Structure formats: structure tokens, C-alpha cells
Amino acid sequence: MRAATLVVLVLLAACRGQQGGGSVAGRDTDSLSFADVGSADSADSILLTPRLVTGPTVIVFWLAGADTFSADDQAEALDELNFATEQIAPMLARSNIKLVPTNSDSVYVALPNNRRRLILLAGVDYPFGYVLIEPGSAERILAGVYADDELLDEIEAYFDLPTPTDSTAVGPRIST
Fold first, then answer.
1. What is the pLDDT of residues 130-140, one digit of tens each?
2. Domains detected in the chain
């Protein structure tokens, strides 16, 4: 229930958020995780600051461009995004994958030698969705709304996670 409330608060704030330009120049790592987000309002600029990803991360994004959708379409997309995010959050936590919200259209990935790679979310098919990031690999942008089982399949495939029905995880055979 707490996770659902956080998702709703974050994405509602994101829905009302305003476009802003944050800088990651002085930041070494992303200090905001999905679990750390408390109640927020539209004046909360932390979600507008571009994220710096240093490890396996799933970013939930809701950009200002979502305002072009009707209020009913926004509400429906927000509900579906909240539900799917709520379903995957425990699995991500068990797998040590961060879940991070953002309203920024930019995400940076930390590279060796203190370099950063930019991922630009502006211009994707839908102004909301997910970005799967494993530094050192190509990111996967999942724009739009995904059913929780489809999202889980995408995450398991991208991060090469074992599935609950994975037949390779066979226990030892005991003979009598």
C-alpha cells in the first residue's frame, strides 16, 4: 500500500510538473531512489533534475509532453503506469536494481574515466514509460504503458534475471 501511495504521489506531481533545466555537473551519483520519494508537489524540482545512473536501474518517466493528452487519457495512463510499477518494485528490490522516478527529459549514464553518456527521452513515442539501464550496455526505452507481465518479461530479459519457471535452477538429485 505504501509503495502504491508513493507511486501515485510521484506521478501526480510529475503530471503537474513544469519543464526545468537541472544540471548534473556537480553530482557524482543519483541520490534519489524510488523508495526515498515522499510526498511531493508540482514545485518539487528534484524530479526535474536529470538522473545520473551508476548501476542497474529502471527509470519511470513522466514528461511535460503528457499534458497534450486529454485529462481522461492522462488519468488512465497514470493508473496503468502506477499499477505496473507497483507490481515490479519488489522484484527490482530483490535483484538490487534501483527504481528511480523522473520528470526530466535527460538521463546520464556514468562511464569509465569520469565520462557520461546522455539518454534523451524527448521525442519518444509517448511522454511516459520506463528506461532500463545497465551501465556498459545499450539502454532499452519502453515508451507508453505496459501490462505488468509484459513489463516484467522486458526487465527479466534485459537484466538477464532468472524467471520463476527457469528450468536451469535445478536442485541436487538425491538417490537412495
1. 999 999 899 99
2. 2-21+32-158 (3.40.30.10)
